[in-house]
């Protein structure tokens, strides 16, 4: 039965069918959730006593940075799956996620800079978390450029998987960097174990914005992965039927 | 697998980037036998050799080697260092240029008085001859050659052919590709469209 | 294994410009530094470790550029994988030899200069181990980068692995800072040693996988 499951999920054809069914739901629900979160956060949540209204960019910055790391984690899992079990779909996913990861990391860096101007007085600082996130951004770009520099796609898949796994050392550094070095960034307000230190009236819109933004990005990933699959399996008969 | 069989190839197919080069290729190789792989340019002969060597893997099918079959390969690249002398290069392959066996081989190929020359200063044909020295002085049971006689004059070609024949007599097996016809008894495997 | 060591040593030894060149470059940098800065200032002694470290980083980066390229192009790597010898061992030996012929002389030279700069023999405790370990780590990481861009011959691979360097650079920077202030650095050195041991095992393994993929 496990083998049946495996064959189902590893097949690009089944994936496309599944994803096509789910896409409209995910898109519309996330759009609603994120809009709700933004309206709540931008208009109704109270102003922060230190930062005033500028903190509201948090509703874009925090989901973006969270996603930039999560997407890399997903890529790393896909890379491991590809290298161990040779599931081609996993390799397509890595190629699909990389540009979106770059986009999200860029949003995180840009929104962070914008937030920094009123709060810290500077739009850039070489502190641990910002620098490691910048490194993450460069890694995403590196992955995209590495894959496109090879004409033989099977080789390119293997290289990109290896590179993703090697670059994985960066993720714990980003996560823990605010704990290890006392720097400009504030420590994590929301952890799995402690009570959140952020006020509930700001916390709820933050949660919704995380869910909504993630959903929208998942939609982008779905679109990107469909492009990859159609590209790479272009001579298969079921592709010719679908497109 | 029978006693003298060195290699079994069953229904091997190979494709790059969804382009199929060849499919359902099957043949066997025994001791003391030679196989000539024929095909047009770009038909996948070198790719087939790489699959047989274990460097690449076939998209479909099996390549089963006898456990006792140790292989030696010479392809388009000579495995020679241009900045080292002939003697040093032989040393890198575990061959001593002062040994009688090596000396006589070099003499037959007209390289014996060039042992202190840098390989980079030798001509293309001379480098090829030096590369072949390594093949003939080796004890591997299977010899795999990709275009062994490119760039060699007729006289040398005859010499190389006689060396290959004597290897066959020693019960070694040879797989080779060659556009130039080689006068050794071999069976043909044709891939691609002629 | 020992035969591999001798063969790789033989190959590199004869290729003088591959290892003597970088050593001379490093020498040039360390000599020009005191010539171009006022000798009397105190800041010089603190900055000197930085200069040593950056000079060794750049020298190693440039010297490791062709580490696998030549063997790839003349078919040696292909031959190696055909003969079923351990590619891991070959990569490990190659990197080790490069460190012996480039990293160690650079470390010795750098230590010598640090002694002459700071006027204390005790700076040998800071400069020598940190340079020996860091050059070995750099050689490993830059070899990884170069193995990725093997067939293109460009620096794309090296650029890609530069982000991975940053944790090491941060650590080394901390060592340099602490050394400049005269703080205890032995715990940081032990940490770096641990990183080195991890890298020595992992990197040749990864590189041999990458080379095998290139050869396909």
TrEMBL record, chain C:
Gene Ontology molecular functions: heme transmembrane transporter activity
Protein's GO biological process: cytochrome complex assembly
Xref: InterPro entries: Cyt_c_biogenesis_CcmB
A Pfam entry, by short name: CcmB
Keywords: Membrane, Transmembrane, Transmembrane helix
Topology of the protein relative to the lipid bilayer: Multi-pass membrane protein
GO CC annotations on file: membrane
Superkingdom of origin organism: Bacteria
Subcellular localization: Membrane
Chief location bin: membrane
Spans traversing the lipid bilayer: 20-40, 47-68, 88-112, 124-143, 155-177, 189-211
Family: Belongs to the CcmB/CycW/HelB family.
UniProt protein name: Heme exporter protein CcmB
Organism: SAR86 cluster bacterium
């Amino acid at each position: 039965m496990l083998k049946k499951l495996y064959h189902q999920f590893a097949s690009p054809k089944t994936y496309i069918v599944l994803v096509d069914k789910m896409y409209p739901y995910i898109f519309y629900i996330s759009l609603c959730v994120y809009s709700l979160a933004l309206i709540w956060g931008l208009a109704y949540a109270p102003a922060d006593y230190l930062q005033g209204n500028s903190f509201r960019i948090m509703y874009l910055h925090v989901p973006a940075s969270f996603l930039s790391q999560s997407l890399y984690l997903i890529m790393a899992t896909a890379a491991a799956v590809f290298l161990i079990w040779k599931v081609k779909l996993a390799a397509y996913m890595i190629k699909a996620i990389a540009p979106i990861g770059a986009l999200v990391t860029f949003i995180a860096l840009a929104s962070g800079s914008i937030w920094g101007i009123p709060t810290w007085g500077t739009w850039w600082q070489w502190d641990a978390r910002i620098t490691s996130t910048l490194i993450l951004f460069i890694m995403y770009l590196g992955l995209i450029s590495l894959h496109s520099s090879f004409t033989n796609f099977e080789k390119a898949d293997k290289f990109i998987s290896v590179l993703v796994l090697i670059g994985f050392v960066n993720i714990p550094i980003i996560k823990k960097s605010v704990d290890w070095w006392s720097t400009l960034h504030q420590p994590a307000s929301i952890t799995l174990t402690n009570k959140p230190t952020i006020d509930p009236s700001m916390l709820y819109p933050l949660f919704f914005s995380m869910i909504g933004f993630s959903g929208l990005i998942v939609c982008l990933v779905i679109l990107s992965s469909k492009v990859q699959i159609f590209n790479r399996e272009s001579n298969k008969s079921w592709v010719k039927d679908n497109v | 697998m029978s006693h003298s069989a060195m290699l079994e190839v069953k229904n091997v197919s190979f494709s790059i980037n969804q382009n199929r080069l060849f499919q359902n290729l099957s043949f066997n190789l025994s001791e003391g036998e030679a196989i000539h792989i024929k095909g047009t340019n770009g038909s996948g002969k070198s790719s087939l050799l790489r699959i047989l060597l274990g460097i690449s893997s076939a998209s479909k099918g099996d390549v089963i080697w006898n456990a006792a079959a140790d292989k030696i390969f010479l392809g388009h690249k000579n495995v020679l260092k241009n900045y080292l002398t002939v003697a040093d290069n032989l040393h890198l392959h575990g061959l001593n240029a002062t040994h009688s066996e090596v000396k006589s081989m070099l003499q037959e190929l007209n390289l014996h008085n060039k042992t202190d020359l840098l390989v980079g200063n030798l001509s293309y044909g001379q480098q090829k001859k030096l590369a072949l020295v390594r093949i003939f002085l080796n004890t591997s049971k299977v010899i795999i050659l990709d275009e062994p006689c490119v760039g060699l004059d007729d006289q040398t070609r005859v010499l190389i052919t006689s060396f290959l024949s004597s290897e066959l007599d020693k019960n070694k097996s040879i797989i080779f590709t060659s556009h130039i016809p080689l006068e050794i008894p071999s069976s043909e495997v044709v891939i691609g469209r002629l | 294994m020992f035969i591999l060591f001798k063969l790789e040593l033989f190959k590199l030894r004869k290729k003088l410009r591959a290892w003597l060149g970088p050593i001379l470059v490093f020498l040039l940098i360390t000599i020009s530094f005191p010539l171009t800065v006022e000798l009397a200032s105190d800041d010089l002694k603190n900055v000197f470790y930085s200069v040593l470290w950056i000079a060794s980083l750049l020298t190693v980066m440039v010297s490791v550029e062709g580490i696998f390229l030549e063997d790839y192009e003349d078919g040696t790597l292909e031959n190696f994988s055909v003969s079923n010898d351990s590619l891991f061992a070959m990569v490990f030996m190659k990197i080790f030899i490069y460190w012996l012929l480039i990293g160690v002389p650079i470390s010795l030279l750098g230590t010598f200069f640090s002694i002459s700069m700071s006027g204390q023999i005790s700076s040998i405790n800071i400069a020598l181990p940190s340079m020996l370990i860091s050059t070995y780590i750099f050689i490993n990481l830059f070899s990884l980068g170069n193995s990725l861009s093997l067939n293109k011959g460009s620096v794309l691979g090296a650029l890609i692995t530069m982000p991975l360097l940053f944790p090491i650079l941060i650590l080394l920077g901390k060592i340099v800072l602490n050394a400049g202030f005269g703080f205890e650095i032995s715990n940081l050195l032990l940490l770096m040693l641990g990183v080195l041991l991890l890298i020595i095992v992992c990197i040749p393994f990864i590189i041999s996988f990458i080379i095998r993929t290139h050869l396909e």
